[in-house]
Amino acid sequence: MSIDLTDPAGYRFWIEERVRFADLDALGHVNNNTLGVYFEQGRVAFLGEAFASDLPWTVVVARLVTEFKAELLYPATVRVGMRALRLGNTSATLGSAIFHGDRLIATQEAVSVIVDRHTHRPVPVPGEVRSRLAEHMG
Amino acid sequence: MSIDLTDPAGYRFWIEERVRFADLDALGHVNNNTLGVYFEQGRVAFLGEAFASDLPWTVVVARLVTEFKAELLYPATVRVGMRALRLGNTSATLGSAIFHGDRLIATQEAVSVIVDRHTHRPVPVPGEVRSRLAEHMG
Amino acid sequence: MSIDLTDPAGYRFWIEERVRFADLDALGHVNNNTLGVYFEQGRVAFLGEAFASDLPWTVVVARLVTEFKAELLYPATVRVGMRALRLGNTSATLGSAIFHGDRLIATQEAVSVIVDRHTHRPVPVPGEVRSRLAEHMG
Amino acid sequence: MSIDLTDPAGYRFWIEERVRFADLDALGHVNNNTLGVYFEQGRVAFLGEAFASDLPWTVVVARLVTEFKAELLYPATVRVGMRALRLGNTSATLGSAIFHGDRLIATQEAVSVIVDRHTHRPVPVPGEVRSRLAEHMG
Prior knowledge:
The structure is a homotetramer.
Chain A: E1 13-18, H1 32-47, E2 57-68, E3 77-87, E4 91-100, E5 103-116, H2 127-135
């Protein structure tokens, strides 16, 4: 795939996260799994309505590929960019990156599956999610 | 690479983790990033001495590929299997899997880089880590 | 009140928690709020059935008084002792302490209120919780 | 003590925290211990320089009294107000409260002890902290 996740120009949807003191681990930097929390927050904001509890479907993550490029220290406010990479029948692949100023901290590719909220079985990507993702594909 | 991370027979190093109520997210299951914490705990135990604070080097993660295969609910105690996949000059790739009984929950491949504790620049994998990993390669 | 929360002889209900590397903060010790997670885990185990999702009531915490007595480092396995201190109409006060070996790490007093699962309004302490607590009062 | 921690007019130092999806627990609301993280973030910001790693002293918490007044749901941005309550020779008591709009979520009283960074033994409250606290006492 030719999309470069490290290029901020590839993202038109952004959220900000401020690093909390609690996000640091014993090595004194933001822990890998906490960067995962920032990416999750990006997904939740990007897919928005998918997390409303009155919908018949929700989103689960099937596969994450995360690359860690630079250490993140406290204090800092970072930006998380979100975009769509691929759109399948019951799943979508999202691309994202965390930047501190111009410095790239990490990238993540997330294969997300749309599932029935009760049975947790895959269902076709709903129209409203499909159009959201299509806007952020190019 | 032909090593099957989903096969428990491929692991000879194991730790146990008991799911905490706090590990659950709003969907009522163990959050993806918390599974990442279990994998991290496996790495810390597997590389052991690498986290002793009096050593001149430490380990940072450069890349994680995580596959989520089944939901994990509370209460549960899981086992995390750890093995080596590849050994480079300044890095090592670890393979791991989380099982709840016989049920596979997730697998993870982790590219770990050995760095100088102070400069955080890559250094050759120390002999003691190299032999540890070689034992868990086959 | 004359009950001494620092005395291990006062507890007949215990759980164990193993410190995770992720429980450490940037100061290199187990964070205060993570000690709070260990206490929560003690409460969840002690009140057990209260967290079963098919019951009409659940437990919320109204007040916590926590005293931190000693630092907790990694690695360690701690024991959390739980007991009842007071039993009211719609609430119960629990006492607890975390020990690392013989060393007292922290104590906590927790005023817990029984609420209707849906309205979140206080309801009388159910009989099964009442008898559980009465056993651990003396 | 006659200071009312529930009154926003008592605070002149504020931080904001945006609730993350990861801050929710299995009950679907912000977990008690995560409210503890917001209070900790308030303390870190309020005492600021105390966490700079090149100082000979740091701050540890000896006692926390937390009252939970209302549930906090996602999404939300809250404000954490911080003030000083008492100033001793080697310790200070801070008062704080979390508000969501005008709604009080929780209050916390924190006895904090100034300790030598290396020996972790109490030392007199440094002048710069003392004057900071004195400004927020009235």
